[in-house]
Write a structure and sequence with these properties.
By secondary structure, this protein is α+β, with helices and mostly antiparallel strands. It has one domain (about 1-110): 2-Layer Sandwich (Alpha-Beta Plaits), CATH 3.30.70.1060. The chain has helices at about 20-40, 90-100; strands at about 1-10, 40-45, 55-60, 65, 75-85, 105-110. The strands form two sheets. The protein has a four-stranded antiparallel beta sheet, covered by helices on one side. A two-stranded antiparallel ribbon has the order 3-4. α1 runs antiparallel to α2 (about 90-100). The model has no long low-confidence stretch (mean pLDDT about 90).
Length: about 110
Amino acid sequence: MARYLLSVYQPDGPPLPRESLERVMKEVRTVRRQMQDAGVWECSAGLHPPAAAKVARPGADSVLVTDGPFAETKEHIGGFSIIDAPDLDAALAWARKLATATTLPIEVRAIAED
């Protein structure tokens, strides 16, 4: 088995209306239960908006801490799941389910193990 990070790409901008968000979260909880039942789920979480982020950047003499990621992008990571799947194809199958539930793109990356 290999561990995979499934990152939810969320567009910048205002959140979904309450009714829409509740529907999406119900679908996300269903996929999480399916992952748990299949024994692949390790953890998942949503993240606060990028405006609440801090970045530590190493410099020549010290580490500078600044507000936000300030990446030139129109989307950010809004949440993630870590799963333990037999292979990339299985991880992609879970990503498809999560993409359908969230209606958002899902990045799949293998976690480098020491």
